[in-house]
Amino acid sequence: MSVDQSSDETGRKVQKVEGDASEIVTDRTETKISDLWKKEDYWAIWLGFLVLLAGVLIYFPMGESYEYKDKKANEIKTKHPRVEIEKQNSIIAKEKEYPFPTVAFYEAKDKKKKLQAKKSIIGTTIKKWTGKPHKWTSNPLHAFYMSKEQAEAVKAKSGVVKKFNDANAAAKAAHKKAKAADAMAKEAGYKDQKLNKAAITAIKDWRNKKQVVKGIKKRGIPAHKPHNQIFQLLVLMIGMAVFFGIGMAVMGYSFGEFFKGFVFVFAIVCAAFMMASQTTIKGLGIGYAAWAIIIGMLISNTVGTPKWVMPAVQTEFYIKTGLVLLGAKILFGKLVAIGQPGIFVAWVVTPVVWLTTYWFGQKILKIKSKTLNATICSDMSVCGVSAAIATAAACKAKKEELTLAVGLSLVFTSIMMIVMPAVINSVFPADKVQVLGGAWMGGTIDATGAVAAAGAFLGDTALYVAATIKMIQNILIGVIAFLVAIYWTTKVEADTTGTKVGAIEIWHRFPKFVIGFIAASIIFSMADASLGGDLSHTVIKQGVIKGMSDIFRGWFFCLAFVSIGLATNFRELKSHFKGGKPFILYVCGQTLNLTLTLVMAYIMFYLVFPEILPKIDPMFQAVK
Amino acid sequence: MKSTDNDKRSTKDGPLGPSSSFLKRWAFLFAGILVIGIFSSVIGPWIVELPLMKPVNQVIQERGIEANLYDYTEIELFGDADFYMRHAMNGLAKDSSYFISIIVGAALFGLIVWIGYKFILD
Hints:
The complex is a heterodimer of chains A (624) and B (122).
Chain A: E1 3-7, E2 13-17, E3 23-26, H1 35-38, H2 40-59, E4 66-70, E5 75-79, H3 81-95, H4 103-113, H5 121-130, E6 145-146, H6 148-158, H7 160-187, H8 193-220, E7 227-228, H9 230-250, H10 255-276, H11 279-284, H12 288-300, H13 315-329, H14 339-364, H15 370-383, H16 385-395, H17 399-427, H18 435-444, H19 448-458, H20 460-474, H21 476-497, H22 503-509, H23 513-531, H24 533-566, H25 570-576, H26 581-608, H27 613-616, H28 618-623
Antiparallel strand pairs in A: 1-2, 2-3, 4-5, 6-7
Chain B: H1 5-13, H2 22-48, H3 54-63, H4 76-90, H5 96-120
């Protein structure tokens, strides 16, 4: 079979395969220096790194000191993270000599945890101007605006202040009790098992009550504060329109047309965030991605997406920029967080499940679209929405395929969040509920929010194990996206065109934003390692990531999902669901995932590395 | 991602959506909004009160868990977990066997991927 190549009027190379009536058009453009400012992939890298650079310049110097507003005293104070970390670490080192974590140990730990650059004056200002709509219960307008009177009325109705005061009083009393019990155990040199047990129980009770106070304080009180977010959202909209608009203009599109359409897209984004902020919806685990697609599709399939909006429906541009930001949070240092068992659970099961499910989809179910198959595999075996986005972008999946994969993940996540803790509680032996149960949930539930909810339901240790397994699994997002991009450029696209691709051709075809994604991950992993865990917590995790990249990534992904909804047709979506194959694929893949994860977690935590158990759950072990 | 027929139609021929009458299209939109409203104010609250859902929802509300977020860095409890685990594992001897087993895990991952690339994905 001979292949005849020529260029068409757009500069793309057109391959005519002899014996085939169709022409296969491939993006085999040569790499030019102008690609750096004319191609979307590069713009995603530049814009993503611009946000990250701003974050680094703002937050990194705060490792030495930062100013924050003490709300109780209503004055500006200064924190010195490096000095404070050293001080608290010396306390922790001393307290660690005792057989269980003492009150002083936890207090020192809490003090270190409070060192967060995002809490600085600059950090809170950034948050104020980029914040998403507020939580609301019955009046959707409260997501954007709440007067002082309304806030007082809602506060009085919900009884949140009383709830907070009661919980706070209970936590303080529990703290006092824990301190007393700890002191008694200490007096006996921590040799009296009865006193140790009493202290452990009292400390555990204090920590649980403290978590409840934290929960009310974090989610309850701010939701009932007066606020007016309309002006901030307008400013943010203009800022983001200019941010992306410059890139669009340089790439040859009209800035004015993009700006006009962006106003509409941004309004839908706000509506999606508003829906996701409703109290009940939060409890059901239905996030902004689902609402963005639903609202977008509702418009596009009823009254239709206005033509003037389409220039701002730039799904890939938003996704790729968001993915570069996502790279910054993929820190390889997390690998050592739970040691060997975590790596085996997350890194061995995940590729096995991915490959087996992909093979099953292609060979048994005979799913026509490889991109749909790959997106569902990543979605189900790695970590839901983020992995689906990364894979879909890497293999150039259709919008409908990503919608389908995300939809499946959201439905199953909500079910698994409720069913798995119930099954673990009723079937697992008591001594395996926390660690084995946590590892099982962390390795299988797709969405991280649902992992946190299900883990917290079982207990703190289960939560910590589940969350850590999920974090280790999250590192795979970049790796999977990279491998999928390689596979697609070297095999799938080569099969489509019928030609073998060389190294240069691979480079031409390779989605360049993946390089930005991986580079961000490597750079921030190195910074994380060089700063050390505690300082990295202050300036990277609770600074650049939470105080900058996370905020913008949320907005960018929501813009992408709204764009997907606005350009998706029910009929096309239905055609991808033909025969229920994606559903069967997800169910079969998830069944394999559940089985393998459970077996691997048991083998690793209880047979191969049992010495890890007392480290993870010292209190549980001490009580035993 | 690839552009679909939908994209082409929207940029060339104007708005998407079914080609039904103006009134019908707007009626569908308002019906959709109504369904969303009913879901969030009636069906949703009913679901969270179901016996299987209620205890989990209680924990979510009590601890202020953002159960509908997708990224771990956005969830406060993941920060707690990271912090706890780092301290818990500090006491564990990180000798050569510790790092060897991590390398073995990573190598195993590489081996699985290679086998998949060579034999399964073909």
